[in-house]
Amino acid sequence: MLEIIAPAGPDALWTTVMLSVVLGGAAAAATGRAVARTWRPASRLIGYAALLAGALGFLDYALFENPVIPGGRVVDALVRVSTEPVAALGDLGGALAGFGVTFVLMLAIAMAAYRIARGRQIAQQYGFAFVRKGLFSWHERAAD
Question: Do residues 45 and 32 lie in contact, with contact meaning Cβ atoms separated by under 8 Å?
């Protein structure tokens, strides 16, 4: 399981988690707030989260030589599909799992920031009709 997130070893796991949570989390939160503030739909966050996950994978490789997005492993698996299809497809899934974990984390943080910002935005912009209800939602104001 450890080699899915950080195939280069336990030190690579620490750097990957810190890079993803600290730098990636801040970038994903800023992305979610920006999409909400410009009144764009939340579905745009999917593409932005994929771009963030790719950028974090590149930074992890460039700074710490940890192949989180193992392009070489993906190409090797695709080349081996004609000779060893079962083993190659298994390797392909493992190669893409590190990107998937980072993508899901970035999307979750961006969605949370989006809902928080949108709730605040709705309550401020339409305070006569809506009131905040908790951190992530709002409801219609009761008629007085």
Answer: yes
Burial 88-99 (b: 16+ CB within 10 A, else e): beebbeebbbbb
Spatial separation of the C-alpha atoms in residues 62 and 19, rounded to whole Å = 12
Cα–Cα distance between 99 and 5 in angstroms, integer? 8
Give the pLDDT band (50/70/90) at residue 51: very high
Q: How many CB atoms lie within 10 A of CB 36?
A: 23
At 30, is the secondary structure helix, strand, or coil? helix
Residue 109, C-beta contacts closer than 8 angstroms, at least 6 positions apart: 24, 25, 28, 29, 32
Largest CA distance in the chain: 73
Each residue's pLDDT tens digit, 52-72:
988 888 888 788 777 666 555
**Domain spans of the chain, in order of start:** 2-114
2 to 13, 86, 100, 101, 110: CA distances (angstroms) = 8, 22, 14, 12, 25
Check: CB of residue 68 under 8 Å from CB of residue 24: no
This prediction's pTM: 0.78
